[in-house]
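[Automated response] Your request has been received and processed.

Submitted sequence:
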Amino acid sequence: MKVRGCRSIVVGLCLLTSSVALLKAEIGPQSSSPAESKEYTRIEAMVPMRDGVKLHVVMLRPAGSESGGEPLPFLMQRTPYGTDGASSKGVNMGKPELAASGYIFVFADIRGRYESEGQFVMNRPIVAHTTKNDVDETTDTRDTIDWLLKNVPNNSGKVGVLGISYPGFLAMSAGIDAHPAVKAISPQAPMTNVWLGDDFFHNGAFRETYGFDYVQQLEAQKTDARVESKEDTYDFFLRNVNFAGAAAAAKMQDLPTAKVFLTQPAYTKFWQNMAVEKHLTKVEVPTLEVGGWWDQEDMWGTQAEYAALEPHDKDHDVFLVLGPWNHGQWGRPTHSLGEVDFGSDTGTLYRKTIEAPFFEKYLKGREGFDLKDTASFRTGVDQWERYDAWPPKAGFHSEKLYLTKDEGLSFKTPVDGGVASTYVADPANPIPYRNRPIQATYGTGSKWRTWLVEDQRFVSGRKDLANFSTPVLDKDVTVTGDVMADLFAATTGSDADWVVKLIDVYPDDAPAPMAGYQLMIVDEIFRGRYVKSFEKPEALTPGKVTEFKWSLHGADHTFLKGHRIMVEVQSSWFPLYDRNPQTFVPNIMTAPADSYKAATQTVYGSAKYPSHLEISVSE
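Generated structure:
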């Protein structure tokens, strides 16, 4: 997991003793060590790769298992976040069921990070292996496994690989041109395509604060150093105009990924080569994809990888879990997120009934894993559902929620109508994405991990956005599957950002703290210049009605009777996303200050231009 305020913490598999206090402060209590925990022995090694580079690994195995007893499978996590704190206590606390069963846990520093040799490359692309020195994460995984099989005594010859976030990307790499010994992988919140929908860009809009902080933490040194700021980052990025100004102020403009941000903001070959989903053309090993509805970092990857693999899943070996979590929250006991309570420990239930049985089945041949395809936690009613596929088809039908001037948000198709709403978006006063002050992403006191469930009333009264709401619901409405925004809009500028949020509005008499609460269910941004092509941005024609259509991602949520459904449309989400100047410039990263101009945004809601959300609702 990317616990990016202390990168050396490997959550879920090891609890680093050097950072226990920070761990508790940042992510809350871990599961307690089970009464019958095993004592694990720690072993370290430097493992040679095919090109001569040596990578550092830490192995934890049950004491005494080297020379006797049942041969054990490996359970491996490769990581850029360090392995120094991998311990017996860590595996017993982080994965108590698997630790009690007995595995050889392996933690490996990837190239150029911590104690491993070589050069670190962010999300190193998969390459054609034509020479001995052609390496990527798939070859490093295979070479590591070759060494483990030959040099670690009393192993069963079977390997499972798992990881959250960047380690999730590495886990998926283990399933591409997979080593024959790999029998199961679990990419969890995997970084999959960091331009289309994961860490660094969403539909062309640059995640400014995130890219600014994360690149410094991974590329400014071989270990981790979180970015702190005494200044409200909203003020910092506004004052520095654009990313070029912010990068110069931090003296980070020469870091490898920052240089690409500055020079290649479009979906160039560089970003395309990093994308993982294009390599998922067959199912090589059983795969358990895991993600959270409110993942603030990598919600896109989980569903994208499942969608890429599912058409090739002839033997029903691809599984999906979607729960009420933020980034990696399923790795610990989880009853709530922010102010939203889920009524049960969803993290422990997932670990006991899905994750542990998955690896027990494929690495040890044991019964107990009964997931057919998808396990989804339905929020609103707080219950687990199981489906034969994602998105499910049986029991659901398509509907459209229309944005209209007179009827608000309506299931009725507009007959006439015209303009649904207009507002003036001013880059000098962008809409904050969370309550101010906004700390550095992983800075002290940061609310980054819960911002997606933050009450949206802190912005919903602003004049520079549009709100559309249903009347109070007279029955439950369950939305399950992908939610698509289909917006017909115009701007007086020559570029624009569009943010659409689907919100559950709680009744005013709901129990505290949820009275009147506005809870985002799904949400996403689209940068207007990419409406025709992500590779070749073009200026928008001022005043021209244009259709913008994009995914807000998956949901499984019941809007309860007595609640209202609301859709909010806005044109900034700052400083998580950099400001759109609203004047077309070749490169927003270096946009001059005088290009940032206010523009009038018009959302249409007519028979000719029916702005709407496409949803799937239960029958």
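Summary generated for your ticket: Confidence is low (pLDDT under 50) at residues 1-35. The first strand starts at residue 40 and ends at 48.
If you did not submit this request, please reply to this message.
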